[in-house]
C-alpha cells in the first residue's frame, strides 16, 4: 500500500503537465484563441481588399467602356480635347488627386505560449514536492512508531 502511495507523485506530475499543456502549451487553448483572433484580422483585411479591388475594377471598366468618364478623368489629369482651351490660375484647383489605397499589410503574429521545457520542469518539481511530502510523512510516522 505504501508503494502505491508514491505513484500519486508520478500521477501528480503527469496531471499537472497535461493541464498546463492543454491550457498554455504550443497547441493549447490559449494559443488557439490567439490564432482565432489573427484569423479574424486576416478575414477583415481580405474583405477590405475585396472592396478596394471591386472599386478599382469599376473604375477600370468605366475608363474602358464609358467615354464620358474617360473625358472627365483626362480633364482631371490636365488634358483637353482639340477644341478646348484652358486658363490656368496658379494656386487654384491644382490640388493633386488622392491616390487610391492599395490596402495594408497584415502580418500574423505567432501565438505566445509556455515552452514545453518550462512545463516539464514545473511538473517535475511538483511531482518531486509531493514525493518529498509523502516520504517525510512516512518517515515521521516511522519515527513515531519506534
Notes on the protein architecture:
It contains 4 helices and no strands. The chain has helices at residues 2-24, 29-65, 67-76, 116-145. It starts with a helix and ends with a helix. The chain has one domain (2-97, 118-145). By secondary structure, it is mainly α. The mean pLDDT is 88. 68% of the residues lie in helices and 0% in strands.
Short description:
With 146 residues, the chain is an all-alpha fold.
Specify Rg, calculated over alpha carbons.
35 Å
Query: Which structural category do the helix and sheet elements fall into?
Result: mainly alpha
Q: Determine the strand fraction and express it as a percent band.
A: under 5%
**How does the major sheet shape up?**
none
Strand tally is 0
Number of self-contained structural domains: 1
Low-confidence stretches: none
| Sequence of secondary-structure elements | HHHH
Oligomer: single chain
Instruction: Compute the separation of the termini in Å.
Output: 20 Å
Average pLDDT, to the nearest integer?
88
Q: What's the helix count?
A: 4
**Shape field:** rod-shaped
User: What fraction, in percent, of the residue positions are helical?
Assistant: 55-70%
